[in-house]
Specification:
single chain, 104 residues, 5 strands, 38% strand
């Protein structure tokens, strides 16, 4: 019996962008022209942990996880990632969250 493998599908998500912010966490999700993306930022004892998952419509999945330890690191990442966030409200909220959560 032949087996077919199926691409991993993105989690069920609303068609419009979503954003949730709590004291120690920001969660945003959105659909772009080529993928569904989900971004989570958490405050940890080491800084802000970032997890970005992207489920491309062609079936590929990319997940990045890393920790930013200072506001300078955060600003460099945020500036370089501006085009990743096809969610203007999340882009602004993420900047505010990072600045409030990390030391200068």
């Amino acid at each position: 019996m032949a087996r077919r493998s199926r691409a991993i599908h993105a989690p069920s998500a609303p068609s419009s962008p979503t954003l949730t912010r709590r004291d120690t966490e920001v969660h945003a999700s959105w659909h772009g022209p080529r993928a569904f993306s989900e971004l989570r930022l958490f405050v940890t004892s080491h800084g802000v942990q970032v997890t970005l998952g992207t489920w491309h419509h062609d079936g590929n999945v990319v997940e990045e996880t890393f920790t930013l330890h200072s506001r300078a690191q955060f600003d460099a990442w945020h500036a370089a990632s501006a085009t990743k966030f096809e969610h203007a409200v999340a882009h602004d909220e993420i900047r505010r969250f990072g600045h409030a959560s990390l030391p200068d």
